[in-house]
Amino acid sequence: MRFSELNESQILALAITAEEEDGRIFRDFAQQYRKDFPATATLFDNMADEESGHRHRLIELYQKKFGEHIPLVRRQDVQGFMVPRTSMLIHALRPEKAREQASIMELGARRFYEAAVLQCKDASVRKLLGDLAMEEQRHETVAQKINEQQAADGEVSIEEDMGRRLFVLRIVQPGLAGLMDGSVSTLAPLFAAAFATANTAETFKVGLAASVGAGISMGFAEALSDDGKLSGRGTPWIRGAVCGLMTALGGLGHTLPFLFPDFHLAMTVAMVVVVFELTIISLIRWKYMDTPFLSAAFQVIVGGLLVFLAGWFIGAS
After folding, report:
1. Domain ends where: 153, 173, 190?
2. What is the pLDDT of residues 175-219, one digit of tens each?
3. What value, to the nearest 5°, has the Cα angle with vertex 277 and ends 178 and 233?
């Protein structure tokens, strides 16, 4: 249905449902961040309390005007409404991104109440909706002030540092391990097949099998190695998926050139891709692992060179 088609009872019912959903999302956020980001959790607790107060006032007015039964009218039932992503879908967001999402939700709520005021005729309904629009606008300001106060107290800085460390622990480390394994370990079977057969199609099949197999193996190994409860490394299946995907991509990068029918061209492009992959690995280690770039590059290149020579020796013998 269209928003312009809603009557006053439906507008109030929609407002009640929206406040319930927003409050539940804020509570979920607070619970999600309570352990590692207490300042952000406090902010979301306060916002959830405000939404609960709004809901109670809306329900009281609805009961007074239209009785006890409140029909279920949701935002997704009304054309043109922005439906917020649920906390489950944005579980992996860092605190600053979650705060941005909350600001967008508050802005959407304010615009809804402003539009609803213009559509309603009952004085008491218009008054409440107008009051809530002003309060939503104040919420945006209050949330900003809370963020500024927490930043001044150093709480946001601490949380940002913690967020970066958790991102490295839960995403970068398993991804880097997978990329290194895929980029380096698949060199030996790929180039052994290349030098042994001088056939790009057969080499591609070997590289594809090695990449996919390594991705599956590394994904399961990472997911089953740690449930994340004690180490704080996060959900096992997410780490496993990241590690497995990056492993497969690392191997496929220098496998795809063997789709070229010309063997020498395929070898040249594959070697260029290998150099690019090793450079990317070195940059990631330099940026996130505090490893000097030259040291990281030397370690990675030596390892890659040894594996490449092993493949060359086996394939040429």
Report:
1. 153
2. 888 888 888 888 888 888 888 888 999 999 999 999 999 899 988
3. 25
